[in-house]
Specification:
Layout lengths: L4 H15 L5 H13 L6 H9 L7 H6 L9 H7 L1
Length: 82
Amino acid sequence: MTMTTQEMISQLNASLVTEEPDIKIIDYVKLLNEKIFNIGIDFIDDFINLVDKDNCCIDHELLMKYGITNLTAGSYDVKKNH
């Protein structure tokens, strides 16, 4: 019998309650992704660093680095399309 995603998340949460009750949210997201979803989240550390700085303006180079956009004129393209 195959477990549903919800059942897998519930099982992971139950084990974390006893094994790592003080896990940080970003570590939880990474662990959840690793164990269940396996989605490419290479950008997450850069994003968290921006949020920690209380500066969520994401540089066009990061958008290009992670394949979110393909800007030819840098941040001008973002402003032009806004």
